[in-house]
Amino acid sequence: TRIMLIVHTQGSVVGWKSWRRSSGTALGTMLSYFSLNGNCVSSGNTACNQLLGDTVDQSSVGGISTAEALVRVSTTLYANYGQWQGAPDMQRFGSPDAVGDNMGGGIGTWHDAGHCYSVPAPYSAFGFTCNNQAFRTCTEAQGGWCSSYSNAPGGAPSGTFGTDTCVPQTCSQTNSGNTANWAGSSGLNYDYMVLLGR
């Protein structure tokens, strides 16, 4: 009845947190949470903001950079977490404690969704129509955008964690090309592991 997120670097644990599964959340696979009621593409869609964990159970977060907000500060955990302040910011895992407008703080992030030149096949299921501009960010995880944008939490290094991204990152802050032009590395090579218990 718990869900745990572990931050690690190539298998070496940096920190972790576990939440008690929400009493209103049916037990199921991670795929069932992500695909519940269709795709999260608009505010108010019932596929969005599926509460997974409503109470922190245990944690060990002291070794995690202040740039990382999801595991470090979240008191709740959601699947398909979306925010609509202008263009939507989407996270496969997110939390209102960790995710501010354009700030990152989630896992599986796509900021300003719909800003895209063409959607790679794995992302087409999100259901957004591209506006033929560059991606803002589309990464495994991040705290803020590219380093020159400096919007990570707590003044920490801005940018992505690790190297997983749907298209190459340039940090050029322009709207042209099939690249992620507001994304760049934070210098932190974090990976994430998700454990779902019954």
Outline of this structure?
This protein is mainly beta and 198 residues long. The protein has helices spanning 30-35, 70-73, and strands at 2-9, 12-21, 50-60, 77-84, 88-94, 104-111, 137-143, 159-161, 185-188, 191-196.
Q: What does the model show?
A:
With about 200 residues, this protein is mainly beta. About 5% of the residues lie in helices and about 35% in strands. The protein is built from 2 helices and 10 strands, in the order ββαβαβββββββ. A 10-stranded mixed beta sheet has the order 9-8-7-6-5-4-3-2-1-10. The longest helix has 6 residues, at about 30-35.
Which secondary structure elements does this structure contain, and how are they paired or packed?
Blueprint: E1 2-9, E2 12-21, H1 30-35, E3 50-60, H2 70-73, E4 77-84, E5 88-94, E6 104-111, E7 137-143, E8 159-161, E9 185-188, E10 191-196
Parallel strand pairs: 8-9
Antiparallel strand pairs: 1-2, 1-10, 2-3, 3-4, 4-5, 5-6, 6-7, 7-8
